[in-house]
């Protein structure tokens, strides 16, 4: 499945068997002698003359990390996820960086056990090959120990974890690796599967693969510097250790291609067990039997199993036969999301993470507010969200503006669509933030302080139908004459996908802006994650209805339904925004209908709203409070007890 090594380090005759020296095991009793190279330090802002473009990370004191404000983009979510990890792991007692730090800690015995478990796992998986003299023109990679304490949904430490990680940044493309892409489940896919589990009343279990990357076989010859504790062969003891290296036989954590090698290994096994996956959504595997089905959604080493009970039990059994697995039971915590299983549905939230965000930015004692942003002024000069002016001071590197944006974006992309527009608006000024923009960030924090337990509730036995809402905020950015695209798609009345994004074109009318927004919404609703043609066969569902998309601009709806009307007001609009949507309507894939602006839930993603309208739309996309769900469960339980008592 992966590409072959086109640039081997040394030539071999076909059919020739290479004579390998037996590898030596790492001795767990030698762990106190382990010494490893430290990674290169980040550039500190004081080392540069122009500090305005820099910003220190929120854990700068521990890791020395620095963000460059005008270079970071987050289209793939990597930046927001890295900030989430910093906030999630930030505490008064940070994890150690080196073994020497572990030795000084009172919990050294637990770290020692974690190191021993890692060394034994490396031996068990036969990760290390023979120790040899480093071949010519070969640059062995370095290594480092990484320590972390795994936590549950209540932020309680559940396990001490140590990893021997290869320093893959020294690998050379085309020599040490070819392809590195490894598909993983994204947040939209995960929410979609949870909505299916709730609507179809399915079970949902989570399994974790122990040392997943060590199962992957390497296709390239990779040598690593010899770790202390790995015994030298007798014939090499006389040679300097610096000229020797150990060949890796398995993909080790930190290597560029490790994720791909693990996915190839897992995919081959699941396909051999008659699972089917979509080429466009390769991280989701489906298997159907006469009595039911099971879906396995892969996120690196976390496997979410959704389906009927018998098929899930069978999947758990044959996964344990092939890999060393940890069965975590019903999915309660995954990808930073807390998942509550109630009698009438599934509730997804990030209450603990929200609390940590507020505490990290010293807003946990702030006065709560009812909306995430203030109403904007129609006067461009008085707009609090206008760009930095010539006489305004840009925030210095000590103000964690980008870190705050990253933490908020992780919330907005996962479980809090109610702050999506405000976060998107403030993220535009990351390169040159001012005090006004920082006040906007604090306004969102105050709103979160009053809605910590707000999340998405997917009701059980609801109608599994995808419904969309699209809207555009005309001249939402009047300073650059750009409008805002907003859309949201719901299943069973609860959001599974949403977007709030500034348009890249200058729309000359509200009709133009709404046409662009509908075009983007149509592109989203036909994405493979919602494509039932792959899953309907598995569930014996044959009927297929067009996806309804509601739009509040009647002229736009009429043009898209009845055909492009050329006039002086529309002749400049690129035909692609009409033709694509009209083709989907002609093929009965979408059905665009008019809705009043007051009932259009997508308004939430395009403009600042009054409190009553804001709360109405938040409720209409399935957002609920955890305390209300728990109260409902209590009343249902109390009613059941009373019912049993009355019959007895």
TrEMBL record:
Coiled-coil region(s): none
Bias kind Basic and acidic residues: ranges: 13-27
InterPro entries: DNA/RNA_pol_sf, RVT_2
CDD domains: RNase_HI_RT_Ty1
SUPFAM superfamilies listed in its UniProt record: DNA/RNA polymerases
Region (Disordered): 1-27
Reverse transcriptase Ty1/copia-type domain boundaries: 131-374
PANTHER family: GAG-POL-RELATED RETROTRANSPOSON, RLK (RECEPTOR-LIKE KINASE) PROTEIN, PUTATIVE-RELATED
Name assigned to this protein: Reverse transcriptase Ty1/copia-type domain-containing protein
